[in-house]
Amino acid sequence: xxxxxxxxxxxxxxxxxxxxxxxxxxxxxxxxxxxxxxxxxxxxxxxxxxxxxxxxxxxxxxxxxxxxxxxxxxxxxxxxxxxxxxxxxxxxxxxxxxxxxxxxxxxxxxxxxxxxxxxxxxxxxxxxxxxxxxxxxxxxxxxxxxxxxxxxxxxxxxxxxxxxxxxxxxxxxxxxxxxxxxxxxxxxxxxxxxxxxxxxxxxxxxxxxxxxxxxxxxxxxxxxxxxxxxxxxxxxxxxxxxxxxxxxxxxxxxxxxxxxxxxxxxxxxxxxxxxxxxxxxxxxxxxxxxxxxxxxxxxxxxxxxxxxxxxxxxxxxxxxxxxxxxxxxxxxxxxxxxxxxxxxxxxxxxxxxxxxxxxxxxxxxxxxxxxxxxxxxxxxxxxxxxxxxxxxxxxxxxxxxxxxxxxxxxxxxxxxxxxxxxxxxxxxxxxxxxxxxxxxxxxxxxxxxxxxxxxxxxxxxxxxxxxxxxxxxxxxxxxxxxxxxxxxxxxxxxxxxxxxxxxxxxxxxxxxxxxxxxxxxxxxxxxxxxxxxxxxxxxxxxxxxxxxxxxxxxxxxxxxxxxxxxxxx
RNA sequence: CGGGGUGUAGCUCAGCCUGGUAGAGCACUACGUUCGGGACGUAUAGGUCGCAGGUUCAAAUCCUGUCACCCCGACCA
Length: 569
Fold this sequence. Notes:
- 27% of the residues lie in helices and 28% in strands.
- It is globular, with a radius of gyration of 29 Å.
- It is of the alpha+beta class.
- A hairpin with a 5-residue loop joins strand 5 and strand 6 (103-106).
- The mean pLDDT is 92.
- The protein starts with 20 loop residues before the first helix and ends with a helix.
- The structure holds one RNA strand.
């Protein structure tokens, strides 16, 4: 591509509404432009990278035996009613009516449509297993779209769905997708990690997420220092403390704790460790009541675990201050488990405490020296907290560490969730109708692009992993318009590189060298060759990798071979 | 949805408090001088100051409404 004929619309200033680095750089490099909240156009240079991501995904899906198809983004409401998700999916599902007042949705995911296809097209166990995939736009009406294409409302996703005669075949198909995903993200040159995950609104029993590791990631992922345990924070299990609970040594006492409403204020006021305190949170119950959840003072509630408890509203909501007063007779800030009636859940760690501090359900008053079994009933404890760094791994080996990740892929074993609701069955060997087992497998194609940038950039701009770069090589002639020697050499190299199948850009713009260098670095082209009279006189060129701080001279005659060699690594 | 903030040229922003001819830098166009790390000069071009009402002799500026966008938002017991 000759850049004089290519819309290089780089920006020097950072657009004011871009928060994260990938969003800023994508705007500055001219990859994307915002159309409305959560809606982005992809400009040519951005689309080049997006297409490279798509291509890797397509090649690996095809290699894994999946079959590409394409489904409409607009889907009839009837299918969603049939799967029972019309009522469950919530406001994130964009719903609208056509001119005949028929109801439709803009698809956020495609289980319903693919299951409809499967039940129409698949008749026999002989046609199984089968895996269909597409790379298609999705729309999720996020409450708050942000971070550019990282959390956009309309986005491009690869979604695949497999169909199986039994659970064993599903497990096998799932494994094949796991391997394919590992290949995909490895080929893209990304540092990533697969972790256990929650099924969320898609459902299913077994699921894993693929996270690109980046400090700016929205998700906390947990992994063990030993063994291969890795999980999303949402599902990472905590173990009950080992050994018996210490014996009670203190008597229960009420202490005035004026204006000490948070654990931090309470520990400062009383001079106790937060590990010796218990905090009681009131959440909305599923029957219009409230439910108490009790945690050790230094622990955090895990919403995903809590909302699965019987009697707790799903999704989890904190009870209003008004309802807390009704249930406890006290304001938030001074409530505790002693004397509480109604449903109460206690975390393992809180249940293991003796002589603890807790709210007294009386404004500005707490108890000290509280003990389970003596001052309040012995609790049945559960795991309802987030893991903390240093917690023992639930798999038995090592301790847990926490890192930040960007979820770019998610694979699920759905089982018969959708096929049952939508009656997708085939005949088995014995002529008996069997409901199919399903798996589903997604990759956020547009998000991968942003995640790659979050992981690979410096002060000057993007540093593309080779396989995702919009151009692999940029030729920067100095004085192209004036020096015939430079122009001939640059044109020649450009033609040779193109003929060799290298994705090369020739920066033949009538601009000063500094402008060209700055743009090449901002856009993130991995390899740069400078063609100038200075070195050309000696039959040399200057080569520099995007990550290097110094250039090296290479013979003009060897340029193609040299670059080919670089591209291999 | 609740709270906060911002809408002025393609981008970044000043001007608003204290009403009086709409500005700067970058980008764009032409010419000239430059030409190895985001050049300089000259001359152009580009804005119904988000939109709609209101107050006023006069509104980017004050008031009301509205729209758009951005940020924050249970872990407090």
